[in-house]
UniProtKB/TrEMBL annotation:
It comes from Sphingomonas naasensis. It comes from the Bacteria. This is YdhG-like domain-containing protein. SUPFAM superfamilies: YdhG-like. InterPro entries: YdhG-like. Residues 19-108 form the YdhG-like domain. Residues 113-137 are annotated as: Disordered. Residues 113-129 have a biased composition (Basic and acidic residues).
Length: 197
């Protein structure tokens, strides 16, 4: 596949120590899998295979990085030192041998060929929002609004609670509570104005 000139420009514009590292990584990726497509994504060189993300690389002031899209499956033990699977790459000596690296590229491509999707850790649900006393008082005086509020999903309740809690002046809080109770009584979510745009 043809090389992307933007990747050439990216490499040429990096610190002198990083240029040979990035060039080596790029050459090994293409040598391992000639069907790789390169581009710039998220302001850094990215490699895709059959239209799916495979890996990316970047250079910073004092180190470079290389990371696979299949983070957990392609672990090297150096995760956490920096972005990617190889930690802080400061010299070519920080990288595996060409054969070992190319084997990892082929393994990542095989994962794409198999249809496997990268595993992502599930985010724990956010805790239930604490209802500001002003809103609790406003809902206590309106049974219909209180019942509707309790029937809203947690994220919807959280939006109202945060909107009222972030008001600094008592007058602003009171105005927001009055609007919130009226909207809730009608079954409207906090951002109801934008839901049917």
């Amino acid at each position: 596949m043809p090389r992307d000139s933007r990747v050439d420009s990216y490499i040429a514009g990096r610190a002198e120590f990083a240029q040979p590292i990035l060039a080596w990584l790029r050459e090994r990726v293409h040598a391992a899998c000639p069907d790789i497509t390169e581009s710039i994504k998220w302001s850094m060189p990215a490699f895709t295979y059959k239209g799916r993300p495979l890996a990316n690389m970047a250079a910073f002031k004092a180190h470079a990085t290389f990371g696979f899209w299949y983070r957990d499956a392609m672990a090297t033990g150096r995760e956490g030192e920096a972005m990617g699977q190889y930690g802080r790459i400061e010299t070519l000596a920080d990288l595996p041998t060409a054969d070992a690296f190319e084997a990892q590229i082929r393994e990542a491509a095989a994962r794409i060929d198999s249809g496997e999707k990268p595993a992502r850790a599930a985010k724990p649900p956010k805790p239930e929002a604490e209802v500001p006393p002003e809103l609790a008082e406003g809902l206590a005086g309106d049974a219909k609004a209180a019942a509707t509020f309790e029937g809203f999903p947690p994220g919807c309740r959280r939006e109202y609670c945060e909107w009222i809690a972030e008001a600094k002046r008592p007058e602003t809080k009171a105005k927001r509570v009055a609007e919130a109770v009226a909207w809730i009584r009608e079954g409207k979510r906090r951002n109801w104005k934008y839901e049917n745009c």
